[in-house]
Structure formats: structure tokens, C-alpha cells
Design a protein that fits this description.
15% strand, globular, disordered N terminus
Length: 233
């Protein structure tokens, strides 16, 4: 059988010319995990809300929990996402973006009531306990647990105690500011490896905006610059 180029495969081999295999014979190219639009949205949610549960991610992306769990298994199998905790309370984060202390701290904050309390204080420091409870929907036990870990702290103000982001939160926030360039490069290289052709777009306030081309389309995605900057959520 002669090839389209004019020379038969046997003759091409005799002449030392490489034979290009037919499409069906070519080695299969590894599937890009992030070309799936739903999986890309889940990856973005995991990046922006590290150490979230399946239920939290389901609400964020508007996809049923079983589907989120299936896509997370694909992302984990491809080395893009890691998890921590027992199977019944597993929390997910992007692989390579956090150190061990980050995972420990963010897993602790990851509960919805704790995250809401931290977010409220980052957006409006100095709330009293009553104001914090009303702003976040948390309770006194949540506030005491966060204070015991140094994530928030209180200052006596007359008859009241006022609450602020704590020293641990400030230290981890600054550490990630120093890591900003590395985190950005890691994210861009991950998206490029997955065939999304990322381009940095205009920076958003508190976010890195990246234009990606999942196939023939183009869209701009927003990734949090700092996982401890809860004021941007």
C-alpha cells in the first residue's frame, strides 16, 4: 500500500525515512484533565477555597456532590489536587501550593462557620462578639476555638471584647505574599501543561486574572492571590 506522500512504507524504511503511523496506530496523547469545563471550574474552586469539602465545592460550582466527587478523583489521580482527613470529612486543595502548616490551618478554618467568622473580621476588624455572631452566623464556641488557635484575637474595650485577625493569620498571610511569584508561576505552568494556553490578563484586586483557551473559546478566570486573604471572598 502506498502512502499519500508517494512512497510506500517499505521503500521509505529502506531509504531511512521515518514512517508516520496512521492515526489509529499513533500513541494515545494523555487526556487533559482541565479541558473539561466542569472540571476546570472545580479546580478553580479548589484553588480559591483550599481545604474545602465536597459539599462546599458543590455549592460553589453548582454541581451535584457525586459529580464533584468524581471530578475530584480525576484531578487527584492526575496529580493536580490533594486531600486531607478521613474519607467522610475529606478536604481538598491544589497540590504543590500549600505547605504542611497551611494545610493544618486552612483545614481548621475550612468549616463554614469558622470561615465565615474569619471573613467577617478580615472585612471589618474590631467587631464585638455579638456583632461577629450576627455578621457570620457563628457561635461563641466557634469564636473561642479560633482564638485558641491564634487565628483571631480579642482586645478588652470597656465592657466588651473586640475581635481582630490574629497573629497566626497575619504571619501566614505575609508568608504567602512573599511566595506570590512562585505561586503564580506554578499555576500558569499547570494550566499550560493542561493545554489551556494561559495568558495573564489585567490583574484583579486580590486576584490573579488569567485568560485561558479551553478549546476554541477564550475566557478569563480569577484565582485568589493569597489563600489567607479572606477579605476578598
Amino acid at each position: 500500500m502506498r502512502e499519500r506522500g508517494g512512497l510506500g512504507s517499505a521503500l521509505r524504511r529502506r531509504l531511512g525515512i521515518p514512517v508516520v503511523p496512521a492515526a489509529a496506530e499513533r500513541p494515545e496523547v494523555a487526556e487533559s484533565l482541565l479541558l473539561n469545563p466542569t472540571r476546570l471550574r472545580i479546580f478553580q474552586a479548589v484553588y480559591n477555597l483550599p481545604c474545602s469539602s465536597v459539599r462546599q465545592l458543590s455549592r460553589t460550582v453548582g454541581v451535584a456532590p457525586p459529580s464533584v466527587r468524581w471530578h475530584l478523583s480525576k484531578l487527584a489521580g492526575g496529580g493536580l489536587v490533594a486531600s486531607t482527613g478521613p474519607a467522610s470529612r475529606r478536604l481538598y486543595h491544589v497540590r504543590g501550593g500549600l505547605d504542611e502548616e497551611d494545610v493544618e490551618v486552612l483545614s481548621f478554618i475550612g468549616r463554614e462557620d469558622r470561615r465565615a467568622a474569619v471573613r467577617a473580621l478580615c472585612q471589618e476588624p474590631g467587631l464585638t462578639q455579638l456583632q461577629l455572631v450576627r455578621a457570620s452566623g457563628c457561635n461563641g464556641h466557634t469564636i473561642r476555638a479560633l482564638a485558641a488557635r491564634g487565628i483571631i484575637e480579642s482586645v478588652k474595650d470597656g465592657r466588651h471584647r473586640r475581635y481582630f485577625p490574629g497573629a497566626l493569620l497575619a504571619r501566614r498571610t505575609q508568608l504567602h505574599e512573599d511566595r506570590a511569584r512562585r505561586s503564580r508561576q506554578l499555576l500558569l505552568s499547570t494550566l499550560a501543561r493542561e493545554g489551556l494556553h494561559p495568558e495573564s490578563a489585567d490583574p484583579g484586586r486580590g486576584f490573579l486574572e488569567i485568560r485561558v483557551r479551553p478549546q476554541r473559546t477564550s475566557e478569563t478566570m480569577r484565582f485568589r492571590r493569597n489563600p489567607y486573604d479572606f477579605s476578598r471572598l
